Amino acid sequence: MVDRQGGNKEDRTAPRVFFEPGKRPSLEIDRSRFEIEDISETGLKFLVDKEISLTRNISGSIIFFKGDTIEIAGTLVWTFGNAVGMSFSEPIPYSVLDKNQRIAYLKTDMAIPQLIKTGAKEETRYTTKDLAKLGIERDTLKSWIFQGYIESSLKDGNGNAFSHFDLYLIKLFDHLVKKGIPEDEASLKIKILAKASSTASDMLFVRPYISFTSKVDFQSLTKEVRDHLFDLVAGKSRISKQSQEKLSKILKGITPVFLDKTKAKRLLAKEGKDKVLIVDLNKVRKKVDKAL
Predict the structure, then answer these.
(1) Same domain flag for 150 and 268
(2) Same-domain status, 90 and 146
(3) 144-169 mean pLDDT
């Protein structure tokens, strides 16, 4: 499997369909079944709940909610947390997707998931004045921007224009800081999500919970190591491949994980509130959307 976190919005060539939990199709590979979170004519995203070993090139079957089955083959192109992205060798018929979409499409009244589903581009731009509506002091926002803790994902922006996705991340960053996570550590966690691009944005729009556990004592790391971690996430690292591999292991222990309600409860019961922070993304989204 490619050692890469997340997909790229610019790589997206076909609209995708999301499915309600309980009505999601399954991907069957060598007698193992995995839940499919979204699918398009050219690829899909499936979820794993344990350590597995998969080859880069795989073949299997997609089994839809009502029993329709279609054989597929393709390549694993990215991983992020418990999500895996697959690109098909040959496109699957859209008629199959359209039929099963009507049966089990994830219903939502949110505008952004609809944009993702239809393949439309999000054109809304938000300014620092809009950010102030999120309940964050303007001086605090300016300080975060100046120090690079929060950034715009818009390539055509000048640093003062933000996307809807950015606003969710900024509100999430604000929440982490208020929960006692140091700003630099919170910033790295948010930038890991931002780097995941389409994967994280899709999940932030539809997944109910996200967990922040740190198997690494970030504050005990030297400033040099922390700087290298930020550079690695930003794709600007100039250190050796061996050193990058060591840093990647540290990042893995910092990377947030998206959860459903059941898994969130299990994790909280197992680890306790002192070791894990679970954020209700529905509340984050509602606060942002209501403020705008």
Answers:
(1) yes
(2) no
(3) 80
